[in-house]
């Protein structure tokens, strides 16, 4: 009796829908997949459009002033909005089986489930690696729309030889070695309010803590109270704010935290700064914000320490366009191959670079 490919596709679909939780030991590449976690918890959905577009107001026009009785007014109307644009990017993977594999395993349900599950798990692992890697990088160049806008795209370090702390982060350093100051369509060089806060440090000590405190204080903007003004999205209550660094800086911050703790438990050589376990990713805290180790920052130029407010630097996905899993396809040219495709449409949108966080790095 011949093989009915439609029936085999149905068997695959049923198996995919009924996969148990994997029991495999996997040699993970990352200690913690932060971007996967953020996209799972904090992403916002956008209905559609060819790109992610938002309006921002960078400055007030100076129309308000004090006056004396009977002074005249000269009402004016200006276009106060500027537009930021972020392209959609697509990331995807697929997993396949050959007819021979299916036939060899079809009479062994457990073996077939293991085959399908392991094949899918391996490709999702690669999916997670790509998402994580690009989250901590800039695109290839200023014209690159293939890769998403990672954290360094929005939180720029100071210019070469610059050490003066402040809202001076304006230069995007792309992966091909080029630079630019146009971020999401707005030129930070000509728009001072479209720059992020940046500062430098030379060693992990109390001086660095002072720099971090200043950065946290100066990027903590609030709308004025009592004048009926509340800018859309300006309320940061409940926002997720985290700090990220490479392994050397993380260990030194742990050591610094231990040296400031008079109650370190003597029976544990790790002190109070225990190595994280299970689902706990932080290595220590700063101002109640978790400091999280990111392997992609180990060899990053400037040994940067990033603070990110994920209510202002927002992971965005197309509505219905996150982790789309296709039906089982049977190929025409590879007629004995069955494939399932998985895709996601996303990017990262920063709506306010002055409040999205800060970066502190060694001098460039």
Q: Could you characterize the architecture of this molecule?
A:
The protein is an alpha+beta fold. The chain has helices spanning 5-17, 34-42, 99-105, 109-135, 151-154, 206-218, 247-259, and strands at 44-46, 51-57, 81-87, 89-98, 166-169, 172-173, 179-180, 182-183, 186-187, 196-200, 241-245, 282-286, 289-293, 305-309, 313-318, 324-325, 329-330, 337-350, 357-361. The protein has one domain. Helix content is 24%, strand content 26%. The strands form 5 sheets. Strands 5-10-19-14-11-13-12 form a 7-stranded mixed sheet, covered by helices on one side. Strands 1, 4, 15, 16, 17 and 18 form a 6-stranded mixed sheet that branches. A hairpin with a 2-residue loop joins strand 12 and strand 13.
**Major sheet, described briefly?**
7 strands, mixed
Could you tell me how far the N terminus lies from the C terminus, measured between alpha carbons in angstroms?
71 Å
Domain count: the total is 1
Count every helix, treating DSSP H or I runs of 4 or more residues as helices: 7
| Average pLDDT metric | 83
Summarize the helix and strand pattern as letters. HHEEEEHHHEEEEEEHEHEEEEEEEE
Number of strands: 19
Molecular shape: globular
- Kindly name the structural category: alpha+beta
Rg, rounded, reads: 25 Å
Percent of sequence in beta strands: 25-35%
